[in-house]
Design brief:
The structure is a homodimer. The first copy, chain A, is of the alpha/beta class.
């Protein structure tokens, strides 16, 4: 099965997916990487592994829907079956989300529904939680509200600041995200209402 | 130091505190147990261990403030330094909360700020989270909004329903709540703004 990864930045989660694919445990191929930022290091990571890397400049489009439509066209041309957002800093328009129902995943650095949106790690520290974590979820039309696929807790240490906590959460992300993709590729995820049922096999 | 426990029901968390006190690891004495329900089994548990058990009927008071004031009077007479809510099903009035700043604790069966209020376990299952847990926090004037003292994650299993998940969360509660009380009794909790700093020693 063909996976597309949408990125805006460094792409460390993309790197984890590429590793998993090369080890044969992703259950699919990273077919293309699309970025809204030309300088995203994720594009370089893709090229380093012989993966197509596309920069699509939002300024070349008159509106969000046109931009998203052009991404959808690229995805359709490549017969993409799953789209993974990996630090993609744009909200997808409803047209995009409806075109790929239950086929778009995102990862978020908190235990949703706590601390959605930007700066999930900072939000958690400011609130004073003792446990945070990360969440892989399907994307719906809300902000980080779609059905949860996998979550894992990460303890907050008394000495933590945003960078140290984010780093430990990232380490878990790099394990959790490829696993969620692999479960999808194997047909082991079933969404019923708000719940995503994982067939643990 | 003297601890009072406010209860409305079975009192399994009270039982955990009594055990900890009898083992000498609570750092204080369960001085009195107060219930707003005459039939609360927690009252019987207290008596079984020779602890004062008081039933105070809310219907004997014209308003919430009068009821809370009568509890405060009981607490003052007994030189109570920490109040632990353990399944106490009434919201404390601001007068009560202000009388004991940073001296009232509560336990909640979710990882706050997710799923505050009633039926935290059911809320979490309905949302479809994969990780829930429990939270010991100081009580402020909001609903489950006070500074978090301790949290522990509990995984949600695919086969879980409300009862099975609640049972596993309860098991963690019975460990976490006495530990939070012990930390308080030893002067190892410091609240700074929203954050409660735990001196791990």
């Amino acid at each position: 099965m063909n996976l597309a990864v949408l990125v805006s930045g460094s792409g460390s989660n993309l790197q984890a997916m590429i590793h998993a694919a090369e080890k044969g445990v992703l259950g699919g191929t990273v077919k293309t990487v699309i970025s809204d930022r030309s300088e995203a290091f994720a594009l370089q990571r893709a090229r380093n592994h012989g993966i197509e890397a596309i920069y699509l400049n939002p300024r070349d489009f008159s509106c969000r829907e046109d931009y998203d439509q052009s991404i959808c066209t690229l995805l359709e041309e490549r017969a993409i079956e799953l789209i993974a957002l990996a630090g993609f800093m744009r909200l997808l328009s409803p047209v995009f989300v409806r075109r790929y129902p239950g086929q778009i995943m995102n990862i978020h650095p908190s235990l949703l529904p706590a601390f959605p949106g930007l700066d999930g790690v900072k939000q958690a520290l400011d609130y004073g939680v003792k446990v945070s974590g990360c969440t892989v979820h399907f994307v719906d039309e809300g902000l980080d509200t779609g059905p949860i696929i996998l979550q894992e807790a990460v303890p907050v240490l008394e000495t933590d600041h945003e960078e140290t906590l984010h780093q430990r959460i990232h380490q878990v992300e790099h394990r959790l995200y490829p696993r969620a993709i692999s479960l999808f590729m194997q047909g082991r995820l079933t969404v019923k209402g708000r719940r995503c049922i994982v067939d643990e096999g």
